[in-house]
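Input record (Table S2, row 213):
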Amino acid sequence: MTDILETIQGMVIDGKFNDIEGEVQRAVDTGTDLNLLINDALISAMDIVGKKFADGVIYVPEMLVSATTMKRGLDIIKPLLQSGETQNRGTIVMGTVKGDLHDIGKNLVTMMMEGAGFKIIDLGVDVKIENLLETLKRENADILGLSALLTTTMPEMQKVIEALEEAGLREQVKVIVGGAPIDQAFADTIGADGFGKDAVEAVQLARDLVAAK
Ligand code: B12
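Output record (cobalamin complex):
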């Protein structure tokens, strides 16, 4: 890893939220590959933070400061991911499921989807099923993207799919799922239409699903 990526990774781990924007901007200005910046510096930092938390080396407040630092870094990159495509490729409602407050991954997926020309309605975190249903109907959405980072909130995804069936919306709305504990097997079990392990896969998945509609 190059020095600048290592520095940025360290800043997120150490929660240097006042310095991160300048450093990410410097990386961008010096032509650092955006994929490396996102994956090798920012996301990998959160993996290390998660491990430290699991090992009891750091606690929730430190994890939160790292998350804030990560978000500030991503904010610098966000405009660069917008391709300026004006064509609406389809409408996607995104949200983190009820009981779950993690939104960094969802936000990253949202940014990349917007960059790829989708219209995104981001309902945020801890989203209630009624809110999802109401928005999907109102927006006549093509896809629902659900994120979950906790093993305890994963089952909420299945509840959402069941609610879509009950509301008669399942045929019209494709459901894609993601988040660190989610995998293809889980997506299959709950009857989702797709799983994406990262934002790049999420965009491809959305493209394929809309094209197949
Ligand atoms: C940052 C963080 C927090 C922050 C969140 C801040 C925020 N605004 O998001 C705070 C401090 C609030 C937090 C709180 C908690 N956290 Co936390 N957190 C993390 C941490 C370190 C990083 C998550 C992250 O942002 N990763 C980076 C992003 C980019 O990755 P990602 O989310 O996986 O997203 C990518 C893919 O999964 C995919 N993707 C994501 N969503 C979607 C959606 C779709 C549709 C698709 C296709 C793809 C997709 O694309 C993304 C981009 O590549 C993780 C550890 C980890 N490595 O996951 C723990 C972790 C998830 N947290 C954990 C825990 C336990 C908690 C708490 C319960 C702690 C506590 N005791 O209070 C609370 C729960 C609060 C709640 N109700 O949600 C555990 C979960 C364990 C488990 N088995 O469930 C983890 C794994 C840490 C650990 N190792 O123990 N946390």
